[in-house]
Automatic annotation (TrEMBL):
UniProt xrefs under SUPFAM superfamilies: FAD/NAD(P)-binding domain
Gene3D superfamilies, per the entry: FAD/NAD(P)-binding domain
Pfam families for this protein: NAD_binding_9
Name this polypeptide is given: FAD/NAD(P)-binding protein
Domain FAD-dependent urate hydroxylase HpyO/Asp monooxygenase CreE-like FAD/NAD(P)-binding span(s) in chain numbering: 5-169
Length: 573
């Protein structure tokens, strides 16, 4: 009997297991399945761990989680595995198109995912060929007979195939963080937190008085850190207007807490629209999505790759121009014809520094920039072209991820596409509107200082981190939290497992700045084209072979289904 090891049982590993069992049931085949998960909550993993605080919010609307479909009943090896409800049915989701979109805490989704996994584990508990092993794998080796040896710090296992779905992996610290670490080792009164999660690591500073905390990064993780530090024994948030989610931060007693976020460009994330009605302003219809898809496929299927992304941005610009024009008086006033508007969008997508009167001026105060985007999300002010285009891009992302992943494009072209998708994430992966209202509320309460967001000069002193902004204003932080999450650059990852795979030449990067190269079914690409390495990898560390590896709904997508189908076909070959 063949043995398969699944290393990593977060959402992607869960969906892989479900599809594996479904495909095996169709062919009446049985295998031994070893599931390895270091976290004690299989299905949810660390990111969706349901023991985390409610201040960690998901950044996708609960409405959009309709993509977490029900699991049908599975009859595997004469064992009946009951079906499991969709997320919406599980939580009795209900919302009108005019209600503000809901963004639940991450732990809520984690409970769903863990229960969904447990429903499988419970059904298979009497099947001695299914084992869940709470262990961290640190090494994988390929034996001469093409069996695979898996190692933890204490044990080894042999299997015929491995599926790796380990998600986020740590990378080598930047030179800046290395310098900061050395500094706090010299001045022991200072404190540096190298990772934003788990935010509970901040517990012992959360309720201190008279502290100034710098936060490196100005994205989603910064918001989680900010919210956890602000919701404490001294104060909390209160929504004062349910129709706009306008918020105040009230203090029960004085703490003298100051939070100081900063990043390389200082640009805040843009909130998602308030509700479904407003969100639909930016939603391409089926024919518009087909137009973009067909243009992309016409190029990737027939053209020789010329290291250009014109085949992507030209149809997007055409549809984006149509949608912006449909906004009519909701959009920033202009007299441009359709061709000129499309040209402006192309310039904008091609150049991050491109400026135009239709594009929101980012050279204003951070507070006013956030306020402007909040009003756009509410539909209370004229919509800028950049806000519109990135919302259109967000609606296109599922189609783009499916169409472009594993397309026959050069590494350079794929890198350009990924760079553009990363640029979009200020808006396409933007936070809930209420999160931005909380930022404004904390700024109004003089708790959040937005004067240093744009790449301040940083001087290390015995008192901490001295920040100096463009106006030569200075401030000293005695605590620093790094909220910048590592990008999935394979050659910078320093986890023992990935280092071991590289050392044994079992994986290779698709590009020096990206992740592992894989085939359509997730199996790794070997240097030796005649050698089939029995290792498949899904998720964040294959960025470059596939697009859109960070989205929760992509964990339940076609690439996982393709792996399960491919694995079962390989059993019969």
């Amino acid at each position: 009997m063949k043995t398969l090891a699944i290393i990593g049982m977060g959402p992607r590993g869960l969906y892989a297991l479900e599809n594996l069992l479904t495909q095996l049931a169709k062919t009446n085949q049985a295998i031994e399945i070893l599931v390895f998960e270091a976290c004690e909550l299989p299905g949810s993993g660390n990111v969706w761990n349901h023991n985390q605080p409610d201040t960690n919010w998901i950044n996708i609307t609960e409405r959009a989680l309709s993509g977490l479909k029900e699991r049908p009943q599975i009859n595997y090896n004469n064992i009946l595995i009951d079906g499991f409800p969709s997320y919406h049915n599980w939580c009795d989701f209900s919302q009108t198109s005019e209600d503000p979109d809901q963004f639940p805490p991450r732990r809520k989704l984690g409970i769903y995912l863990n229960e969904r996994f447990n429903s499988i584990a419970k059904a298979l508990r009497a099947y001695d060929r299914f084992k869940v092993i709470n262990s961290k794998i640190i090494a994988i080796e390929l034996n001469e007979n093409y069996t695979v040896k898996i190692e933890s710090t204490k044990n080894t296992w042999l299997c015929n195939d491995v599926l790796l779905t380990v998600g986020h992996q740590p990378t080598k610290p930047s030179k800046q963080l290395e310098k900061w670490e050395a500094h706090v080792n010299t001045f022991h009164d200072l404190k540096l937190f190298n990772e934003p999660y788990p935010v509970t690591e901040l517990d012992h500073i959360r309720n201190k008085e008279h502290i100034v905390i710098g936060i490196r990064g100005f994205g989603l993780a910064m918001i989680d850190v900010m919210r956890y530090l602000a919701v404490n024994n001294y104060g909390n948030f209160k929504v004062t207007d349910s129709s706009t989610l306008e918020t105040v931060y009230y203090k029960t007693k004085e703490q003298n807490l100051k939070l100081v976020p900063f990043s390389l460009d200082g640009l805040p994330m843009g909130p998602k629209p308030l509700n479904e009605n407003i969100d639909n302003w930016y939603k391409p219809n089926a024919s518009q999505l087909d137009f973009i898809r067909n243009k992309i496929e016409a190029f990737t299927n027939t053209e020789k790759d010329a290291n250009t992304i014109d085949f992507l941005i030209q149809p997007l610009a055409e549809i984006g121009a149509q949608i912006f024009e449909q906004l009519n008086n909701k959009a920033v006033d202009h007299s441009l014809n359709s061709d000129t508007l499309k040209s402006v969008i192309l310039d904008f997508l091609s150049d991050a520094d491109y400026s135009h009167h239709l594009i929101q001026n980012s050279n204003i105060s951070t507070y006013n920039l956030i306020r402007s985007y909040v009003n756009m999300a509410l539909g209370n002010t004229k919509i800028s072209l950049d806000y519109c285009i990135w919302q259109v891009w967000r609606h296109c992302q599922p189609m783009l991820y499916k169409t472009i992943s594993h397309a026959k494009l050069s590494n350079e072209t794929m890198n350009k596409i990924i760079d553009l998708d990363e640029r979009s994430k200020r808006f396409s992966y933007g936070p809930p509107l209420e999160s931005l209202q909380q930022i404004l509320a904390l700024a109004d309460a003089k708790v959040l200082d937005l004067d240093y967001t744009n790449n301040p000069d940083i001087k290390l002193t015995e008192n901490g981190w001295e920040l100096k902004n463009k106006a030569n204003k200075t401030l000293v932080c005695d605590i620093m939290v790094n909220s910048v999450l590592d990008s999935p650059q394979l050659l910078k990852i320093n986890s023992p497992l990935i280092v071991n795979l590289l050392k044994n030449e079992l994986i290779q990067p698709v590009h020096t700045d990206l992740g592992i190269e894989t085939q359509d079914d997730g199996y790794v690409v070997s240097d030796d084209k005649n050698k089939q390495v029995p290792i498949a990898i899904l998720g964040r560390i294959v960025k470059g072979s596939v697009l859109g590896v960070d989205a929760i709904l992509e964990c339940f997508g076609k690439r996982v289904e393709d792996w399960a189908d491919g694995y079962v076909k390989r059993l019969n070959s």
